[in-house]
Design a protein that fits this description.
Strand order of the largest sheet of chain B: 7-8-9-3-10-11
Radius of gyration of chain A: 20 Å
Distance between the termini of chain B: 35 Å
Strand content of chain A: under 5%
Largest sheet of chain A: none
Family (chain A): Belongs to the binding-protein-dependent transport system permease family. CysTW subfamily.
CATH superfamily of the largest domain in chain B: P-loop containing nucleotide triphosphate hydrolases
Order of helices and strands of chain A: HHHHHHHHHH
Pfam family, one (chain A): BPD_transp_1
CATH superfamily of chain A: MetI-like
Mean pLDDT of chain B: 89
Oligomer: heterodimer
CATH topology of the largest domain in chain B: Rossmann fold
GO molecular function, one term (chain A): molybdate ion transmembrane transporter activity
Number of domains of chain B: 2
Helix content of chain B: 10-25%
Number of strands of chain A: 0
Helix content of chain A: over 70%
Number of helices of chain B: 9
CATH class of the largest domain in chain B: Alpha Beta
CATH architecture of the largest domain in chain B: 3-Layer(aba) Sandwich
Order of helices and strands of chain B: EEEHEEEHEHHHEHEHEEHHEEEEEEEEEE
CATH topology of chain A: MetI-like fold
Mean pLDDT of chain A: 90
Organism (chain A): Mediterraneibacter hominis
Keywords (chain A): Cell membrane, Membrane, Molybdenum, Transmembrane, Transmembrane helix, Transport
Number of strands of chain B: 21
Number of domains of chain A: 1
Distance between the termini of chain A: 51 Å
Low-confidence stretches of chain A: none
Radius of gyration of chain B: 24 Å
Structural class of chain A: mainly alpha
């Protein structure tokens, strides 16, 4: 069995969840604090779009923005000497974009579930907004945030459509596990596909079970 | 001694908040039905909600001035707010909760926490999490946390609404003790007249976003002059009334003429009689304000019973009478002393 898809997938999912985790939390905090309800709704709509669009459409947009002949793609190529499309980085980019809404929505829901009085109490006690975020809001939203992170990791691991569009299916370079399954099946090699399928099923199962366990532990700890 | 001056307006969907009051280092109670804007007033003072216009200031600082576009951050106002659910941080221990509002070095901080733990009888609970505490302990932690941040003003939002009634009275006494150490302005919001009576020097009656009356608590409860004040201070029997003579009024809802002991105000619109001011009587002794009882529904409470009755000679609206439980018999006649009749304006 060729091991490179496993390594590429794990590397991609790990790096992308790292980016998504912090980006999702920051954006969720920003949206939660928006005063204007309508602006909030529109922002939320745009940020959730990658979740509801077919991944190929998201991939199409990525190609449109970062393609070698597009302005942004050219900019990166000329100034940093980095070719984004059809590189390993593109698998990360695709995974981040597709898994971002899961992280963002989980974090937003978790923030909104925290009793607003806790934040008001922090303010009247003279705590700075920074301190309130790290010592009150974040710890009390942690179980929701963590489960969002785990979902985002699982989604990044399973990303197929957008990755195929922007990163292609280059063996040993951008061929992730889902792409490897597809390649083997399309070549009529069901035996080869089985192994990758089994690995994906196992990882996903452990991740989701781990999430359930984490939620259980946190609920027990945070019960009021 | 602190001063607080509030004069604010804010529009909501169902009502308009329009509050004007000032106070000086005393405890003020705001009494009103739920949803009349009591809590909103506190939130505006604390800076949690922003009024549409008006002014809030103390002798030290301007918290809010709509015209001058001043709106001080809640962090800087030094206003302690006791939330209805206490809003203890569930992820922190008792100790850390109390320390949350102290901005001093670590050693200093925990010395202060220790003093407060002692003052509020929370010794031994410092490492506990809030969800393990009883309602009374939670309240003490919340109060200790607020006092740790050294506020100039104390705002208590329905401090006992989340508590069982047997705990309430003990904690009210306790709170009264603790408040003695606090010398700034205190505002207590409640819909429970007993709480306000026990804890506040002055009482304000609020209805639909507006403060109607603000008086010395004792005076307001003993001699309410407005119908709403009488009702909110627990007067069960209120009837439309008209003047019939120098010392006589006619209670239109009950169909009785009653003698009163003092000058009848020009604007008299209602009279009120507290349910325990009706006394059993017999016509052979005195005829004054005598009512023949037509009994209705009787309700038993642990230590008293309550009877709905009408004037048997001219049965109209019902009145309430409250008697101690030992007093078994339903009286044939009741009487009310002229000085016990409350003369009320609209």
């Amino acid at each position: 069995m060729e091991l490179s898809p496993i390594l590429i997938s794990l590397k991609t999912a790990t790096l992308s969840v790292f980016v998504t985790f912090f980006l999702g939390i920051a954006v969720a905090y920003w949206v939660v604090r928006m005063r204007h309800e309508k602006v909030k709704m529109i922002c939320d709509g745009i940020l959730t779009l990658p979740l509801v669009l077919p991944p190929t459409v998201a991939g199409f947009f990525l190609l449109y923005i970062f393609g070698v002949k597009r302005p942004l793609g050219q900019f990166f190529l000329e100034f940093f000497g980095v070719k984004i499309a059809f590189s390993w980085g593109a698998t990360v980019l695709a995974a981040v974009v597709i898994s971002f809404p899961l992280m963002y929505r989980s974090a937003r829901g978790a923030f909104e579930q925290v009793d607003a009085n806790l934040l008001y109490a922090g303010r009247t006690l003279g705590m700075s907004e920074w301190k309130i975020f790290w010592r009150v809001l974040f710890p009390n939203a942690l179980s929701g945030i963590l489960s969002g992170g785990i979902l985002a990791f699982a989604r990044g691991l399973g990303e197929f459509g957008a990755t195929a569009m922007i990163a292609g299916n280059i063996a040993g370079k951008t061929r992730t596990l889902p792409l490897a399954v597809y390649s083997h099946v399309s070549a009529g090699d069901m035996e080869g596909a089985y192994q990758y399928v089994l690995i994906l099923v196992l990882i996903s199962f452990f991740v989701v079970t781990g999430m359930n366990y984490a939620t259980y532990v946190f609920q027990k700890y945070n019960r009021r | 001694m602190g001063e607080l001056e509030v004069e604010i307006q804010k529009k909501f969907k169902s009502f308009c908040l329009d509050m004007r009051f000032s106070m000086e280092g005393e405890s003020l109670g705001i009494l009103g039905a739920s949803g009349c804007g009591k809590s909103m007033t506190l939130k505006a003072v604390a800076g949690i909600v922003t009024p549409d216009r008006g002014k809030i200031r103390t002798e030290k600082a301007v918290f809010y001035d709509g015209a001058a576009r001043i709106n001080m951050a809640p962090q800087k106002r030094k206003v302690g707010y006791l939330f209805q659910n206490y809003a203890l941080f569930p992820n922190m221990t008792v100790e850390d909760n109390i320390a949350a509002g102290i901005r001093e070095k670590k050693a200093e901080k925990y010395k202060k926490v220790k003093t407060l733990l002692e003052q509020f009888q929370l010794n031994g609970l410092e490492k506990q999490y809030p969800h393990k505490l009883s309602g009374g302990q939670q309240q003490r932690v919340a109060l200790a946390r607020i006092l740790a941040s050294e506020p100039d003003i104390l705002l208590l939002d329905e401090p006992f609404s989340a508590m069982d009634s047997y705990l309430k009275e003990e904690l009210q006494l306790e709170l009264k003790e603790q408040l003695k150490h606090f010398h700034g302005c205190t505002i207590i919001v409640s819909h429970d007249r007993d709480e306000i009576y026990k804890l506040c020097d002055r009482t304000m009656i609020m209805d639909n976003g507006v403060n109607l009356i603000c008086e010395e608590t004792k005076e307001l409860f003993d001699q309410p002059r407005h119908m709403l004040a009488a009702r909110l201070t627990g007067c069960k029997n209120i009837s439309r009334a008209e003047r019939r003579g120098n010392n006589t009024v006619y209670a239109a809802d009950w169909g009785i003429e009653l003698k009163v002991h003092c000058e009848i105000p020009q604007k008299l619109a209602y009279i009120g009689i507290r349910a325990h001011d009706f006394l059993p009587a017999s016509p052979s002794k005195s005829q004054e304000n005598l009512i023949r009882v037509l009994p209705g529904e009787k309700t038993q409470a642990p230590f008293e019973w309550i009877l709905l009755f009408q004037n048997a000679d001219n049965p109209q609206g019902s009145m309430w009478i409250k008697r101690e439980r030992g007093d078994r018999q339903i009286p044939e006649f009741v009487q009310v002393k002229p000085e016990k009749i409350l003369l009320l304006e609209e």
